[in-house]
Each structure stands twice: as C-alpha cells, then as structure tokens.
C-alpha cells in the first residue's frame, strides 16, 4: 500500500562555485541516506549572475557513496601505488538561461553517507586584485528526496517465505541480514505463479546501487522452476536489499517463494586473547581491574579455536586502532608487525574505518615479506584489501572481488619483498586485509608452507604530507573534515607528485633572485630622499625594501626559501610598507608645512595599518590612501598656484624630466600589477612592479627646500661656531 512509503526531504545551503585548480576549489555536499530507502532523487540547482561578466559555463558534478569523490579534472598523475577509480559525474550547462535545474534518480540506493562535489572548469591562472574586477557568481545547491519503506519485510535465513508482487508498477522489496563471518550466500526463488495461473517472468535485483561503481546483481527467473544465485563474501553485519519486479502483464499479480541461506565461516585465531590483558597491564594497569574478569573469562575461546586451526576457514589477527589526530589513525598489531601467513587459510586483519570521520584521508597499507621465513623459495603471499567483507578465497588469478564490491590486490614474494597500497578517500566501512601463501603448482609440500609478513597500516590526511612541493590543508564542510593537497612550483597531482610542469631548481632560484633583488631598486629612491633631506621618507622606503625582500624570500613555492620570521608577519609588514610608501611620497609632493605633513604621516599610517588588518588584499587599502593623498596634493598645488598666480610647479623642466616620467612609470606599474600578473609569470611581472614603483618614487620626490644647503661635511663641522656667532650678532643688534 502507498501508506507504507514515507517521503523525506533534505537540503543544504547553496555554495558559490570556484574555478578548479586543486581539490579545495570543489564544493562538497554531504548527505545521509536512511535505511530501507527504495528511491533517491537529487535536485541539482545551478544559477549564475546577470551581469555582463557572466558567460556560458559548464558545471561538473561528481557523486560517490561512502566517501568524497576522487576527481581529476586537470588530468594529472596520481602517486604511485594509489588506486583510482573514475568518479560518476554529470555536466550542467548554463548558457542563455540564468538557472538550470537537473534531477538525478537512483533506485534502491545504498544507505549511509553520500557525497556530491561540484566545480567550474580549470582556473585560468590569472591573479586578480580584489576590487579591480567583479567575478561572476556561479551558485550551486543540492537537495535530496528519499522514498523510504517503513515496514520492509524481513527474509529470515533458511526459512522459505511466500510473497506477492502486486503489479509491475509496484515491485516487491524485502531485506535479509547478513551475519558476521558469512563466507557465501545463496538466494533461491521458486513457485513463481501469476494470478492467471500462467508461467511468470520476474527479475530479481540483489544489493543496492553505489556510485561511482555499482555491483548490484541481477537474476531473471522464468516459469515455476527453481532459480538461484550464489554470492561469495557478502557484506558482513549489513542489511541486504532484494527487489523483485514482475515482467508480465500489468494487471496480473505474481506469487513467489524466496529462500536465503548462508555458509558461515568458523574463524580461528593464531594468537591468544591474553595479549589484550598484557597490553592493558603494560599501558593502563589501573583500568584492568574494572574489566579484568570479563577479559580472563573470554581468553579460553581463542585457545580452542587455535587448536582447530586446520578446520577453520580464516585466521584472525588482533588489531588495535589508535587515533592520533583528525583524519589520522594508526593500526597496531598486538603480536607485533610480523603476521604469520599459511597456505591453509587466509589471515585476516580488521581495519576499522566506520566512525564516519575517516573517509577524508588516505589509507596506506604496506607489506614487507621476511624472506627467511618462507619455507618455499618460489612462494608468493597474495593480499587483498576490501571494504564491507573480506576476500576468503585468494588465488593467483582472482581480482579481489567480493559479492558487491571490488577490492585491491597486493602481492609480495622473495623476488619482490615490498608492496604498498594507497586508497584515496576510503569509504566509511569496516576494511579487511586478507593474506594467504600461494605455492606454485609444480612445487609440492605447499600444505606445510608458512611465511611471515610485516604489516604497516595507517590513515593519514595527505599521503607523504603532499611532498616538498605541496601543502596539506584540512577542509571542512559543516561537521565533516577532509584533506587535500595544494601544490606549488608547477607541481601537480593528488599528492603533488606530478612533475610534468614542475619548475626546475634553477628556475626557482631565478624567481627568488628576481623577486628579492628587484627591491634593491629602492636604493636610488632612498639616496635621493636622503640627499634632499627627506629622512622620514627615506626611512619608510628602507622599511619597505627590507620587508619586501624577505617576504618574497619566504613566499617562494620551491626549495629556495628563507624565512627570517613568521610568514604572516612578513606579509603584513610588506603590505604596510608598500601602501605607506605611496602615502608619504604623494604627501611629500604636496609641499605641506612640516607639522601638518608629519601629522598626516602618522595619522595615515595608523589608519592604513587598521585597514590592512581588516582586509590585506582589498583594492581600496591601496587606492583609498592614494586617492586621498592625491586630493590633498591637488588642493595644495592649487593653493600654491593661486598664491603665486602661476602654474605650480612652475618649472617646465620639473614637469618634463621628473613628474611626467614618474607618473608614467607609476601608471605602468599599476597596470602590470592589476591586469598582467598570472601564476606562471608572477616572478618577473611582480619584479617589474618593484622596479617601476621604486623608479617612479625617485622621479616624483620634489627638490629640497631652498634654505636647505646640500650635504657638505666640512661645513657641518663648523656649524656650531657659525650659529653662535649669528646669535651674538642678533643680540647685539637688538640691544
């Protein structure tokens, strides 16, 4: 009946999309699909602004179940030993329409976490000054509708259950719980009869749909004969959905009988549970007293299982999960890193990643074979890393597949004793590592062969911390945390391991030298200021030159880096010195009275320091002081011109040889800074900006006051006697 279905609606706020250059530019949406959901519908809404800067745009949307999608829009290389499966994605085009609405339907979706990531095409690489241009806003919002069955029938294992499919439009949904240690499942459908007493045709779908890959199993049954499907390694301790739909006429109902049976594996243990007690005694002896009785009572069971090792289908190794930090986990084997591996049954290790906060990092599994422990020279240790259920039958040709998922294979041998696997953004679930010794067919005595493999497994936010040319950033979407690598110096890829466009060390050194030594062009401006007795201005230029030099020495993306203090402090001082230099230069050109000029110097510097603390990259932090200082200068020049009754400055040489060249250099510098800088040409365009600004200051500084004499050291040595003589003459004249 329709009343058995409940519809639910989930929504998240819209996010502004960004052009893609690294994973942090992708906007992530995180939803949770409840159990017994039979239909999932995504409502994707994309919109753009209405301004002339808004053009047609293609938005890429990625979907994944269990973890954020692993995407590669730039086509870069992933790190070696990393497992990558293409994400499921669609494209939404915004052309003439301002808004686009798209629906995506998923029938019988898997319960749990679902993620959507959306982004714009690759970034152009241009460095835009905040305020000079208005970027077009592209917005994206994802809403989720689910249709859930409130009382889904439960299929009990080993018990045949009759059910009826009312019509083809209303399929039958049932579920069965898969117990732990289930090695295989067999589903059987029989007694299929229509209401018209005719042979029926039905289709059975086992499992749920997951993206990007779906391993849903399909079975078509015709007639009243028995129809069955066997599944190896079904997901442990999970509900398995089964949907039966009729392929017959619209008005005929179908009666079927279903049966699900499981083959349960009896686990053994190669170690005693007393290891847990010894661990507690060594690390937390005080806490053992509260739980010591239950631990000792449970210690006898593994002994019996260990004694029946030949009859068990797997050997379990105890693993301790140790949380280190956010998205950082280390797995520690209680018996040491060495794991015994035999050919009789696989050895199983449980890697718990089901907290809901572990899918934002990278799972790393490393194997190291102890060559001296292998009794057969040509033996190979096969391993499989899988989620939800372990691989219990390892052989040389299998691909680590389970009933509803695809695992990741590994192998070590005497010729290749090391192997590493990197799982990027592992899905939220229980992960299993299965190991088994495989012997060549031509070599006898494999039943008694054993080996020892050292296992190292851990979860890290970024593999290898993004390397020397990357920065690992922790990203957040609401309460979910995930990590991504931001690469520099031309390096790319998921972990900044793609060097196809990387800068050489020589290029990095050249960039550092250009950006730092170009600040030495302030030396002529400092010399001119000192020669003309503008000592305060010269001090400001010296401050700017110093901090700009060491800020760019610390701001380099490669190996040529030198930081004399905190990066944020250097950046702030560089921005402050640049704006204050412009401020004092223009006020100096205004020819104000000294007391007024120095008051404006101090007051303007304080206001500039405040505005830079609020927003360092805002265009008005530079344009505001410049325009206000220009207004003061123009007002002062008009006042001087009206007072003298001719143009000010009055000398045409001053205009032709100083002011016009200085103004031209300043305008060229602003144009280069605002419109020409990109990520690729930054190191030489910004160096040109340094040179042009420093040269314009040297041209724009006004000449010294007429009553000021030039620096002459012989005259300065007799200055005190001359002043005294002048004072005496004035006093004598007055009396």
From TrEMBL:
Keywords assigned by UniProt, alphabetized: Cell membrane, Disulfide bond, EGF-like domain, Membrane, Transmembrane, Transmembrane helix
Any one GO CC term of the record: plasma membrane
Primary localization: membrane
Cited Pfam families: DUF3522 (PF12036)
Residue ranges of every copy of the EGF-like domain listed in the record: 458-497
Database matches in InterPro entries: EGF, NGX6/PGAP6/MYMK
Subcellular location: Cell membrane
Disulfide bonds: 462-472, 487-496
Membrane topology field: Multi-pass membrane protein
Highest taxon listed in the record's lineage: Eukaryota
Listed transmembrane segments: 510-535, 595-614, 620-639, 655-676, 682-701
Classification via PANTHER family: FIVE-SPAN TRANSMEMBRANE PROTEIN M83 (PTHR14319), POST-GPI ATTACHMENT TO PROTEINS FACTOR 6 (PTHR14319:SF7)
UniProt family annotation: Belongs to the TMEM8 family.
Name of the protein in its database record: TMM8A factor
Underlying gene: Tmem8a
């Amino acid at each position: 009946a329709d009343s058995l279905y409940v519809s639910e609606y989930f929504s998240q706020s819209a996010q502004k999309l960004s052009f893609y250059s690294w994973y942090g530019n992708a906007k992530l949406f995180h939803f949770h699909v409840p159990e017994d959901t039979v239909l999932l519908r995504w409502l994707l809404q994309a919109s753009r602004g209405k301004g002339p800067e808004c053009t047609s745009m293609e938005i890429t949307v990625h979907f994944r179940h269990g973890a954020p999608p692993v995407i590669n829009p730039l086509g870069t290389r992933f790190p070696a030993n990393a497992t990558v499966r293409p994400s499921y994605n669609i494209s939404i085009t915004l052309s003439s329409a301002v808004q686009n609405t798209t629906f995506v339907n998923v029938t019988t979706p898997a319960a749990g976490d679902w993620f959507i990531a959306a982004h714009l095409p690759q970034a152009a690489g241009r460095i835009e000054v905040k305020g000079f241009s208005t970027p077009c806003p592209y917005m994206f919002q994802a809403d989720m509708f689910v249709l859930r069955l409130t009382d889904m029938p439960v299929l009990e294992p080993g018990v045949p259950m009759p059910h009826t499919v009312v019509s083809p439009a209303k399929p039958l949904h049932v579920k069965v719980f898969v117990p732990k240690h289930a090695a295989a499942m067999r589903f059987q459908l029989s007694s299929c009869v229509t209401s018209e007493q005719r042979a029926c045709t039905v289709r059975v779908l086992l499992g749920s749909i997951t993206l990007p890959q779906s391993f849903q199993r399909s079975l078509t049954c015709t007639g009243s004969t028995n129809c069955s499907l066997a599944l190896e390694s079904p997901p442990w301790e999970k509900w398995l959905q089964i949907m039966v739909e009729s392929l017959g006429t619209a008005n005929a109902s179908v009666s079927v009988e279903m049966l699900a049976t499981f083959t349960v594996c009896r686990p053994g243990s190669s170690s005693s549970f007393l290891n847990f007690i010894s661990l507690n005694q060594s690390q937390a002896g005080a806490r053992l007293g509260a739980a010591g009785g239950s631990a000792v009572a449970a210690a006898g069971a593994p002994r019996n299982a260990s004694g029946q090792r030949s009859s068990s289908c797997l050997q379990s190794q105890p693993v301790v999960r140790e949380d280190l930090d956010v998205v950082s986990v280390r797995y520690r084997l209680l018996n040491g890193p060495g794991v015994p591996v035999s050919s009789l049954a696989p050895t199983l290790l449980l890697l718990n990643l089901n907290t809901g906060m572990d899918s934002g990092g990278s799972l790393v599994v490393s194997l190291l074979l102890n060559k001296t422990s292998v009794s057969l020279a040509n033996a190979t240790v096969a391993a499989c890393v899988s989620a939800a259920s372990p691989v219990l039958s390892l052989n040389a040709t299998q691909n680590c597949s389970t009933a509803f998922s695809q695992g990741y294979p590994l192998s070590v041998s005497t010729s290749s004793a090391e192997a590493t696997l990197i799982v990027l953004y592992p899905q939220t679930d229980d992960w299993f590592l299965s190991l088994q010794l495989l012997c060549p067919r031509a070599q006898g005595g494999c039943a008694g062969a054993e080996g020892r493999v050292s296992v190292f497994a851990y979860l890290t936010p970024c593999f290898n911390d993004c390397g020397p040319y990357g920065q690992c950033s922790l990203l957040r979407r609401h309460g979910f945390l995930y990590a991504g690598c931001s690469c520099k110096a031309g390096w790319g890829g998921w972990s900044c391991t793609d060097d196809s466009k990387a800068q050489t060390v020589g290029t990095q050194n050249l960039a550092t030298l250009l950006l730092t030594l170009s600040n030495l062009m302030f030396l002529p401006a400092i010399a001119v200021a000192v020669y003309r007795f503008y000592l305060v201005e010269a001090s400001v230029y010296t401050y700017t030159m110093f901090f700009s030099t060491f800020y760019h020495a610390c701001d380099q993306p490669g190996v040529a880096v030198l930081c004399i203090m905190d990066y944020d402090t250097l950046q702030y001082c560089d921005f402050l010195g640049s704006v204050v230099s412009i401020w004092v230069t223009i006020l100096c050109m205004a020819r104000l009275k000294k007391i007024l000029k120095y008051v404006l110097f101090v007051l303007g510097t304080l206001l500039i320091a405040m505005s830079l603390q609020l927003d360092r990259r805002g265009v008005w932090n530079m344009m505001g002081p410049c325009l206000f200082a220009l207004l003061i200068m123009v007002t002062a020049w008009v006042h001087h011109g009206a007072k003298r009754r001719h143009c000010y400055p009055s000398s045409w040489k001053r205009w032709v040889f100083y002011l016009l060249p200085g103004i031209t250099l300043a305008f060229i510098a602003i144009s280069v800074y605002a419109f020409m800088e990109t990520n690729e040409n930054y190191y030489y365009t910004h160096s040109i900006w340094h040179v042009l600004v420093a040269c314009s200051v040297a041209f724009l500084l006004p000449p010294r006051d007429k009553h000021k004499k030039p620096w002459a050291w012989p005259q300065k040595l007799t200055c005190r006697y001359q002043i005294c003589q002048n004072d005496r003459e004035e006093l004598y004249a007055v009396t």
